[in-house]
Amino acid sequence: MTQINHFLIGSPGSGKSTLAAKLAQLDPTAVIVATDAIRALLFGDALIQGEWSLVEKEVLFQMEAAFCAGRKVIYDATNAKREWR
């Protein structure tokens, strides 16, 4: 079976999180992995950029956990630079 995952790209405030929430409503097997939520978890505030390596480690952990559980992933992040994608 083909599994479709969503990798959102866009400027801050462009509606990525809104789209991610709508996509998740359409597919209850999907998990949203959002860098804003991870920053809030790690640093106490989504607006604190913090050290990217810590954020990236948690992003990869959450994605791997979702994939291992057979869930789809909606990755909600700016992904502004090609090398970040």
Polypeptide structure, described:
- With 85 residues, the protein is α/β, with parallel strands linked by helices.
- The protein has one domain: Rossmann fold, CATH 3.40.50.300.
- The protein has three helices and three strands; from the N terminus they run E-H-E-H-H-E.
- It has helices at residues 16-26, 35-43, 52-68, and strands at 6-8, 30-34, 72-76.
- Strands 1-3-2 form a three-stranded parallel β-sheet, with helices on both faces.
- Helix 2 (35-43) crosses helix 3 (52-68).
- The radius of gyration is 13 Å and the shape is globular.
How are the SSEs ordered, and which strands pair?
Elements: E1 6-8, H1 16-26, E2 30-34, H2 35-43, H3 52-68, E3 72-76
Parallel strand pairs: 1-3, 2-3
Radius of gyration from CA coordinates: 13 Å
Which whole number gives the mean pLDDT?
Answer: 93
Question: What oligomeric assembly is this protein in?
Answer: single chain
Termini distance? 25 Å
Note the beta-strand portion: 15-25%
CATH fold-level assignment: Rossmann fold
Structural class by SSE content = alpha/beta
- Provide the domain count: 1
- CATH class label: Alpha Beta
User: Quick one: overall form?
Assistant: globular
| Largest sheet, strands/sense/barrel | 3 strands, parallel
Features:
single chain, 15% strand, Rossmann fold, 85 residues, 3 strands, three-stranded parallel β-sheet, 3 helices, alpha/beta
Q: How would you briefly describe this protein structure?
A:
With 85 residues, this protein is of the alpha/beta class. Helices cover 44% and strands 15% of the residues. The protein has a 3-stranded parallel sheet with strand order 1-3-2, with helices on both faces.
